Amino acid sequence: MTGYGKAMAELPDKKINVEVRSLNSKAMDLSTRMAPSYREKEITIRSEVAKTLERGKVDLSVWIEKKEGADIAAPINKSVVLDYKNQIEAIATELGMPLPAPTEWFQMLLRLPDVTTRTEIQDVSEEEWQAVHAALLEALAHLVEFRRQEGVALEKKFREKIANITQLMQAVEPFEKERVEKVRERITEALGKTLSVDYDKNRLEQELIYYIEKLDVSEEKQRLANHLKYFVSTMEEKEGGGQGKKLGFIAQEMGREINTLGSKSNHAEMQKIVVRMKDELEQIKEQVLNVL
């Protein structure tokens, strides 16, 4: 969901800049900074952003650049200056203090509050608003295109990681039969060393079958394979939204099966493979937050 877009609208006396950035977030979290004259349009602007971007932590900035020669100096409030001067003279006379030198009056008076005021034009013409709206849509389009390009790269990365996990899951198979034989040999050897009496070999075989069934990972592998296929098919869905959340849930289920596979492995090589599968899955979980 990360992205960036910027656009500019040009009017005879000003340039209007629109900049929008987005980061990952579970919901729409929009922060705006805009010129005061556009505040009355904030609800419309927010609605446009939410409709286009769906979710993410979004920062939107709209600011104005005055063109050269278009700036108007802030007016000096003559009545306020005169009132300050009269008050200073009255206080100086009352306290017997000397009045400021003529060259000091302006420097002192112009620093006092409310002497200079700038009046902001709050009313936005229809022509200006259309220009702002067009710039907003253009900036959002740039951000969406940024996201789309990132999505293409993410899809490629996800397919690569899913393929890696699939190959690692298949790499477990040669060790499964070997593991069963090693478990059987280890238990039989331990019984031969520790027990000096004969034991029922048929009963032992039954117990071994029960024990080995507890270590069987066929169901985990089958469920994991289904999750891998579902992950890919969800990526390929073109209609609707919310694939990011679905992919996150599927990744969690994949993690459960891989963890169970690891706990049942009881074999050094299988456990090494499981660690590599976890590493591939962790990279998926990190990037799936970028998916809408």
Q: Under the CATH scheme, which class of the domain at 3-71 and 127-146?
A: Alpha Beta
Give the end-to-end Cα distance, rounded to a whole number of Å: 6 Å
Percent of residues in helices: 55-70%
How many DSSP-defined strands? 4
User: Strand pairing plus helix content: what structural class?
Assistant: alpha+beta
Q: What is the chains' assembly state?
A: single chain
**Which percent range describes the beta-strand content?**
5-15%
Radius of gyration: 36 Å
Shape: elongated
Mean pLDDT, nearest integer?
A: 83
Order of helices and strands: EEEHEHHHHHHH
User: Could you list the spans in which at least 5 consecutive residues all have pLDDT below 50?
Assistant: none
Number of helices: 8
> Order of strands across the widest beta sheet?
1-2-4-3
Q: Which fold does the CATH topology of the domain at 3-71 and 127-146 refer to? A: Ribosomal Protein S5, domain 2
Biggest sheet, in brief?
Answer: 4 strands, mixed
Gross CATH architecture of the domain at 3-71 and 127-146: 2-Layer Sandwich
